[in-house]
Amino acid sequence: MTESTYRIQGATGEWEVVIGLEVHAQVTSQAKLFSGAATAFGAEPNTQVSLVDAAMPGMLPVPNRECIRQAVRTGMAIKAQINKWSRFDRKNYFYADLPQGYQISQLYHPLVGEGEIEISLDDKNPDAETKKIGIERIHVEQDAGKLMHDQHPTRSYVDLNRSGVALMEIVSKPDMRSPAEAGAYLSKLRTILRYVGSCDGNMDQGSMRADVNVSVRKPGEPFGTRTETKNVNSVRFVMAVVEHEANRQVDVLEAGGKVVQETRLYDPDRNETRSMRSKEDAHDYRYFPDPDLLPLELDDAFLEECRQSLPELPDAKRRRYEKDLGLSAYNAATLTADADTARWFEALLAEGARIQKKSEGEVAKASANWLLSELYGALNRLGKSLEDSPVGPEEGAELLALIADGTISGTIAKQVFEIMLETGDSAPKIVEEKGLKQTSDTGAIEAAVAKVLADNGDKVEQYKAGKEALFGFFVGQTMKAMQGKANPQVVNELIRKALS
Ligand code: ADP
Ligand code: MG
User: Fold this and answer.
1) Assembly and interactions (predicted)?
2) Measured from the CB, is residue 206 less than 6 Å from ligand 1?
3) Given this model, what pLDDT does residue 4 score?
4) Which ligand is in closest contact with the Cα of 171?
5) Which of 36, 78, 116, 439 has its Cα between 20 and 30 A from that of 195?
6) Is the pLDDT of residue 278 over 90?
7) What pLDDT does residue 3 have?
């Protein structure tokens, strides 16, 4: 069964789930959408609030060019139509974290129109099963402040640091059909945002959160009534919400009830969603064009600059790694799933190609394998991420070059790497100081082989009688006698010669 045929079995037959996500992504920018106040995460409450963000009378919003630029670049990265003319609207409602009494958003004329994101449903072979998820629009809007209910027994406080921070609301079409598709979509979107650099994608810090729209229907029937679960802040939780909410709706419908269109909240501790309020329609918010702001008009030079500034995107990079560098589909997908990993790998590869005599493909394969097994293994053990890796790409490339030119064996390289992690010393220095150079000195190796064969006369007999698997034993013993420093090829040759 493939993920695209996810079904829920009810007494009256099979149900299909329909999912659309609205993702709020905080735009990476020093300043807010309409003011110069800072946006740093974790600052003291109310230290990053301008008079505009506090909605002092008479203050006027001024659009921040960088925020618009980031949203346009994001739109381009998802192959979307960019609207050269767009406009800001006021969405009116009262809440204590919203001093203006309205949020400046874009309802009627969003900055970015229809686009698409391709997801993959097979991690091991990303091109084997793909699906395009339509994007309805991306609009730009302000974030609200934050209420703090845990500071005082009888009072609530308001922190306006987030008030006015720029968000992109990225609205998908109702194109997803399983928890796995919803999870893959959100991960892919986050990957793209990080590549583009328009959002840091840190869901645990709230810079990306998803409203999860879910409905169920019998396959082939029109869409059912949906519920919207707000502010879900991890990929895993999004998948759990879909799973839970779809099953809840099936239960309601199977019992003869109706799904109520409403806003729900997810409780990760109990893994359930709860009704929050009945859903408002757009007209409840009395949207109207914001009279304080002119329409946004983008010229061709601006759009061209946005386009030029886009990096190579994850799918293109993954395919290039496979085709041009000859990496396995799995390695290419793993290395490109995250912009930082790809950057690290490319730095490792560039330095390797510079200092080694091997072809780019050979360097690439060795670099990919080392990064994904040795380096990742070590970082996991140390509880560190790639950014704070004690060994950088240049140092890694030096180590790999020593293996490539035969100075050290793969086994010794593991030891050298451990010492690099501990001391911060370079691989050539460690190899030199500890005398770890691999030897192809046939005299020394011949002597070791002779001793191993003499000490294991019984095994030599068995080998000669046909037990060929013992060859590996002789190699292992010889390597051990040479403290891992013998060139394995030479060892193999000399044992073969001695036994013939
Ligand atoms: P609203 O503005 O009221 O939130 P939209 O039409 O903009 O409604 O849709 C919001 C989100 O809900 C979109 O991501 C869309 O894909 C999704 N959606 C719409 N209809 C359904 C449905 N029947 N089932 C699941 N998701 C839906
Ligand atoms: Mg909505």
Assistant:
1) Heterotrimer of A, B and C subunits.
2) no
3) 53
4) 1
5) 36
6) no
7) 46
